[in-house]
Design brief:
Elements: H1 3-11, E1 15-19, H2 29-37, E2 45-52, E3 56-63, H3 70-76, E4 82-84, H4 87-94, E5 111-115, E6 124-130, E7 133-137, H5 139-146, E8 149-151
Parallel strand pairs: 3-5, 5-8
Antiparallel strand pairs: 1-7, 2-3, 2-4, 6-7
Length: about 160
Amino acid sequence: MTPAVNIAKKAKIDYTLHSYTHDPASASYGEEASEKLGIPSDRVFKTLVAQIDSHELVVAVIPVSSMLSMKQTAKAAGGKKAQMAVGADVERSSGYILGGVSPLGQKKRLRTFIHETAENFPTIYVSAGRRGLEIELAPNDLAKVSDAKMVALCAE
């Protein structure tokens, strides 16, 4: 199992794993998960890592149908500016490969923010730690286990 699944097990939260065959030619990992699992894209959340004020990395969990707002992300983290983190830094801090980054079980625990629309659903889907594997869980359980805050993160 992946570190993400092990964290969910250890926390004794309800979750369901969903797997699909990942297509290496897919342009968007999140959209691929939504399409192959037959789940609306506003219910499948992608895990992005941003850099705040050129030093701190933070995790942003947003619907795959949305775009991350750097302004909202910086505000949520109490910073002035945000930018997407460099892929190598994401892989090094999380322990996951791009396209399989989970908000759960990261090697280095980063401050985590979940887009507030997650609360509109009984469960959401996030990466379970590898391409082709999603974990479905209640948004409040995800927030509790990842010590995340629910905030506005997406460009309108």
